[in-house]
Every structure is written in structure tokens, then in C-alpha cells.
Amino acid sequence: MRPIPDRVTTMSDQARLPGRPEELDSHLTATPFAASLRWAVHALVYLLVMLTAGLALAPPASGHGWVTVGLLALFTAVYSVGARRALRRPAGADGSWRTLSYLLPSIVIWAFTFVVGPDTVWIAFGLDFAVLYALPLLGGLLALALVTAIAVLGFTAWSQVPAVGEIAGPIIGALVALAVVVTVRALQREVDKRTRLARELAAARDTIAEQTRAATTAAERDRIARELHDTVAQSNLSIHLLLDAADAALDRDELPEARSLVQEARAAAARTGAQTRRFVDAAEPDVPSGAGLRAELQRLVDDAARVGRSRVELRCTADDAELEDLPRSTSRALVRLVESLLANVTQHAEASRTMVTLEVEGAQALLDVVDDGRGFRPEQVAGFGLRSARARAASVGGSLVIESAPASGTAIQVALPLPQEDSP
Predict the structure, then answer these.
(1) How does residue 92 score in pLDDT terms, banded at 50, 70 and 90?
(2) The whole model's pTM is what?
(3) What's the number of domains the chain is made of?
């Protein structure tokens, strides 16, 4: 039986699980690759602006040069304000139409610089990258055509006979920028895809780790509950019943009987203390094997008979060698199951006779606990004792079957599998 986690996955939890692109995309921050490309484009534009300003102020300096520098300063201011606002949004591979709010004014200011001189044609190469990278593909192509046309017309306007290079230069620059940006965008999409996948995997890993911790906590809580129920709780029940019997013996003036019962209660209290210390120290209890296992089961049967004032018998058909070969986990489960099931009989069955049978048959150990008590309807009763016994059997790969009916007693059979040696 698998332990039931204390936290059930709800629909709201499923909404937070990985594999939902809409949620991941809404929280997807710019990848380092995308941010670096955006800064590289801005750096190229600023570098070309400084180069153009240097050419405009190169000796012999003139008033036209200072006008060009002033227009470039205005261009830089408009471009920088818009670029700064754009930096607040994630850098995607498809661009945004909102960048037209600063790209279009920047292109217009740059176009006016050709009225003063042709040197600002160098800035066209930077604007080619800026518009292609900042705008969607269609907008980028239209803006690229506009920048190229302004560069060609503005530069050739200052030549009486335009050379082929004056026309081809801006066009070749635009084509180079288009090829680079298309390639970079494809690469950026792949990087974004891998980044999203990595984050989904990280989210899935965290979810699995959280669920594993919850399941481990639930399993450990169930284990502790079973240990307490099968050891300390049963010992306390025995002590109470022994003391009640001693009190009844005193009422009957049977002092020797009362003293014997108190001694048994004291011994049970000592066992309880030892079990508690072992539990606190997380130490494995000593699990007997062979004849020791038979003796331990007999002690549990005798204790149940004394406490319950009923006839409890043990019939163990397995010999000492078969008991010696039982795995440690199986021996421990048998001891705890007998202790727990007999406690249930003592506390609830009101039986006059109980038979405990243990046998090793083939590849399994079979434990039967049968009483002639008042019985019950198994489908209507799910007490912790029976659930704990079923979980105890399942913990070593076994099963527990209950047959009972009102006024017809109860028969419980536990089948625990045994490891088989491989044939040579």
C-alpha cells in the first residue's frame, strides 16, 4: 500500500506545473544572448555617430560641421531616450512595432543631416541593424528600404556624377545587415527555445523534488505511526489491562494474583521504556530468528492470553532452519503483525479463543490469526490497527486478507513473499 501524501494536487497546482507555455512565456526574461545583441546594435550606432562627428569636425572645421554635430546630438538624444525605454521590455527575436516611436524620428533627423553634408551616410549601416533588429520582419524590411533610399539619395545628391560605389555601398551594407540579422534572429529563436526548455526542466525538477519530499514525509509519518501503534501503544494497552486485572484481583482479595499481575505490568512498562528509547535513538530493534523468533511469538501469545483472559494458542509448523532463513525484514514484520493483530483481538473481539498459525509454504510465509469473537463487517470497518497491519505487510511486499462477519469471528491471513535463490 502506498503512503498517501498529505498534500493533494489540485487544479490550481496543475496550473503551476511545467509544460504550460503561456505561463512560462509571460515570465520569460530576456536571455543574455538577446540582451547582448541589443547592446551591440546600440553600440554600433553610437560608434558610427562618433565617427561621423569626428569627420564633420576634422580640419578645416566649418560652420556646416558644427551644424552636423548639432543634428547628430539631437539624433543621439532621441535615439537614446527611445532605446532606454525599449530596454525595459524583454528582448525578443521578433521585434516590436512600438520601437517605431523612436526609430522613425531618429531616421527623420538623420535624413536632415544630408542637407548639411554627405558624411552622415556612415550612420546608415548602424540604422540598418537597428531597424531590422528592433522591428518585426515586415516593418524592418520597409524601414531598411527607407534608410537605404535616404542614404543613396542623400549621398549622391552631393556628387555631380554619382559613382557606382556611392549607390552600391549603402545597398550592399543593407543586404549584409539583412543577412546578419536574419541569421542572428534564427539563432536567437533557437537560444530562446533552449532557454525555455531548460527552465521547464528546472521547474519540473523542482516540482518532482517537492512531491518527493511530500511523499517521503508522508511515508515516514506512516512508518512512525505504525511503529508507535505496534510497539508503545500495544505495550500501554497491555499495562492498562494488566493493572485493571490486578485491581479486580485485589477486590477479590487474591493478593498473590494481584502481585503477579503488577509484576507483569512492570515488565511491560520496562519493555515500553526500552522500545521508546530505541525509537528515539532511531535504532533497529533486535529481530530474533530461528528458535528465537518462535520464542518471541510465543511470548506475544502468552502475553495476549494473560492480558485478555482468553485462550490464545500458537501453532508454528515451520522448523528452526526455515525460521532462520527468513529475511530480517520478514521476521520483524511477523513479530509486529502478531503483536498488532493480537492487540486488536484483545481490545475489540471479545474472543474466548484465538489461534495464531505460522507456516512457510514454498515462496511465502503465511500467518493466520483466527478468533471466535464477535466479528465485524470488513467493508465497514477501517480502524488504524488493521490499516497499519495491512501497510506493515505491504512494506515487505506482502498482502493481508480479512474474512469476518458479525457474530462469526474473524480470520486474518497475511502472506509475505520470500526471496528465491537462483537455480544454478
Answers:
(1) low
(2) 0.45
(3) 2
